[in-house]
Design brief:
Layout: H1 11-15, H2 20-24, H3 26-29, H4 33-43, E1 50-54, H5 60-68, E2 72-77, H6 80-92, E3 98-102, E4 115-118, H7 140-155, E5 162-166, E6 175-180, E7 186-191
Parallel strand pairs: 1-2, 1-4, 2-3, 4-5
Antiparallel strand pairs: 5-7, 6-7
Helix pairs in contact: 4-5
This protein binds S-adenosylmethionine (SAM).
S-adenosylmethionine binds at residues 29-31, 53, 55-57, 60-61, 76-79, 82, 104-105, 119-122, 132, 146.
Length: 192
């Protein structure tokens, strides 16, 4: 059985598990390994923290995050085939502290989790040319709906809840910005 060596997981190590379109989408749609490692380290501030990736794609954030940290990572993903691919890679590398749920994020009970990662997942609704594919409904009304629900779900979390956002200018209500990288793409938040 292969296993990831946490220190050496690179974008290529991960992307090499896919071919064709999924691999080509990597640079645009899946978080870079260096970003994942920084974000996951902030979110797992003690062993056992339960992290939710809101829109998990092929599982890059969850699998690398889980391989490098003592938290438990769950990805929620609306495209079933991406969930199945993520499961396959997690199994291949024997990463056991991770799972993927095929559903819409609107269906998820956030109180089951301690910390959250959000890579601008709803953007394809307002920029369809940038969409992963056309297998799901995409429109501006859904962008508003998903964003409003995400805002409310995160607002209901207790003080101290950690969140990392990557790209996008949406700001989580009730959260304080703790730290950001130079270009503001990667932002670290804590519930006030
Ligand atoms: C930019 S990709 C990020 C993938 C992953 N978080 C990462 O960093 O590698 C966003 C993903 O969110 C998913 N997504 C978008 N809206 C969603 C929703 N309402 N519920 C569940 N998944 C959603 C998309 O299908 C896509 O795979």
């Amino acid at each position: 059985m292969d296993s990831f060596s946490p220190l050496f997981i690179s974008d290529k190590d991960f992307d090499d598990n896919f071919s064709g379109e999924i691999e080509r989408q990597s640079a645009r749609h899946w978080a870079p390994a260096a970003i994942v490692k920084r974000a996951a380290k902030f979110l797992v501030d003690k062993p056992g923290v339960k992290v939710l990736d809101i829109g998990s794609g092929v599982g890059k954030f969850c699998i690398i995050g889980a391989a490098c940290n003592e938290g438990f990572f769950t990805g929620v993903e609306q495209r079933e085939y991406l969930c199945l691919l993520a499961d396959r890679v997690a199994r291949k590398f024997n990463v056991t502290n991770v799972k993927f749920i095929h559903t819409n994020v609107t269906e998820v009970d956030f109180s089951q989790y301690d910390a959250f990662f959000f890579y601008n997942a709803f953007y394809e609704n307002i920029e369809p040319d940038d969409a992963i594919d056309t297998s799901v409904d995409l429109n501006a009304r859904l962008y508003e709906l998903y964003t409003a629900q995400l805002t409310e779900k995160l607002l209901a979390m207790p003080k101290g809840t950690r969140l990392v956002t990557y790209w996008g200018d949406w700001e989580p209500r009730g959260y304080n910005l703790v730290y950001t990288n130079g270009n503001d793409a990667l932002r670290f938040w804590e519930r006030g």
